[in-house]
């Protein structure tokens, strides 16, 4: 889980949702964890890249996808990523295979986005609407 929230605020907001956030087993990157350069929060991809490397063991490199420091192999690994995001800066940060699960108040803002980098690949009203098979993932167990 990669959140732009400060660690203290994340813990306050999620403490009553232990059943949900416990599924992540403490694999949470917050904006103030010191794991990426200050000022490189969303819409920069750094927080997602740190989470992928640190918690998933993926060698995705750091920096924007178009930068020369990012190899073709790293770009290929990034292209397999799937980000669930509730805000436009997060969609911009995670743009590779993005499923936007917006706050109802943000849906209209998404329609106004003009840049390809701001457009999600899919928009869901709820995470319950997610069909893993549509993204090359195995189906949920019945």
UniProtKB/TrEMBL annotation:
InterPro entries, alphabetized: HAD-like_sf, HAD_sf
User: Which GO molecular-function terms appear in the entry?
Assistant: phosphatase activity
Q: Which domain of life is it from?
A: Eukaryota
Instruction: Report the EC number(s), separated by commas if there are several.
Output: 3.6.5.-
Q: Which UniProt keywords apply?
A: Hydrolase
Gene3D superfamilies from the UniProt entry: HAD superfamily/HAD-like (3.40.50.1000)
Stated name of the protein: Protein SEY1 (EC)
Q: Which organism is it from?
A: Ganoderma boninense
Q: Which gene encodes it?
A: Q9C0L9
